[in-house]
User: Fold this.
Amino acid sequence: MPIEPLRLKKLDPLADLSDEDVMERCAAGSEAGFRTLVQRYRSRIMNLVCRFINDRDRAEEIAQEVFLRVFRNRERYRKSGKFSTWIFTIAVNLTKNEIRSRVRHRGTYSLDAMEEETGGQGLPFPDWKPLPDQDLNAREIQHKVAEALRKIPPRYREAVVLRDVEGLSYEEVGEILRIPGGTVRSRINRARLMLKDRLKPHLNLEEDV
Amino acid sequence: MNCRSAESLYSAFLEEELSQEERRSMEAHLMACRRCSVAVKELKHTLVLMSALPSVATSPHFEEEVFDRIRSGEALRPTLIEWLGGFFTAERLRPVFLGGAAVCALWIAVIVTRPGTFAPGNSAVASREAGAPNTSTDAGSASESVAMTPDAESASEPSAPVFGPRAAFASEPSAVVSGPSAGRAATGDQWANRKAPAASDGSDSTLEPGSRFQDEYILDQFYLERGPERAPSIVPVSGDATDDVYITF
Assistant:
């Protein structure tokens, strides 16, 4: 079993290259390079967009659009910047446009209406199946976390999602959101406090975390 | 350290981003403050829950759909913003800015070397110098200018006073009226006839001093006002101030 990934790794000549190097090949016309980038980033982009707008179908369309824009603007990419920052900036901008467009059409960004779109189930999980009680409890808590995340104001949500869900550095978050480092830290701390207050009933302080 | 300042450092404390001094101060505060101590524990647990959030998977056809959209040419069509972004690049804008700067420099040079060339109202002066009949300051010329031909009107159009200084209007009252009024008189427009009875039938005598009467728009640029006001911006139409017909600007 452990041999298979090693063989696959050897077969993929781009596997060892950094994102920036792969993007450079993509800009030079390499379809394999672009495919590698799609494979590396599709889950992260989908996750990011989904956490922002809570509409899986639309999130998938936006995630595809992100990659189309990467392809369309591949010659404009400058290797001096991190590829992840660039692609996340595109994703955040497209998601913000989507939120703005929803506000414009509905007059307000209604979280309840967004919840209706997903049948009140929050984000659907791909591996949904009957679970033992312990897993069911864990899933319920995950649902509560996702719900709490949805209910904090967008500017705090975007910062905390980039940091705590996507695991980006404060500097990258600041670059993507175009806000100074102090503001990034303050927003993320504030967002976490909001989440903590919303999740208070589900926090088990007896466990030593 | 108080609770408020400690709260703003919770995240930095958990992520070990505080300086040694800040950390010691924070630890001392947490030892003394149960509320903050509990809050930090809750926050730590929240971060654990956040990190345990499952990722949302894409559909199995995601990759192929992206490539299908690229092959269909959809990916090659730039959005309006992208198109504009590509159009307004520094390379493309540089010659435009240089050209604009050159034109501005030339214009400033002309203004400096030949002052008055583009001064407002200069065209009126030029037409008067050229002998245009409607620009006379003679009191009797008002009635004469009303009878101008359309050709004469077109010749005097550029001297419309709207763009000139008020001082120019005060010195050339008849020029103000003659352009538009002459053409209208020639084409049968009776606005002049509408004011004429008011001025000639003696109805002015019923006006009370200081009262304001109905204004009549002529060209959306100025209007006639009948009344006894005599502000500096009000110019007698006929040069005869006693008929109480003025143009205001």
Observations:
- Chain A has a mean pLDDT of 79.
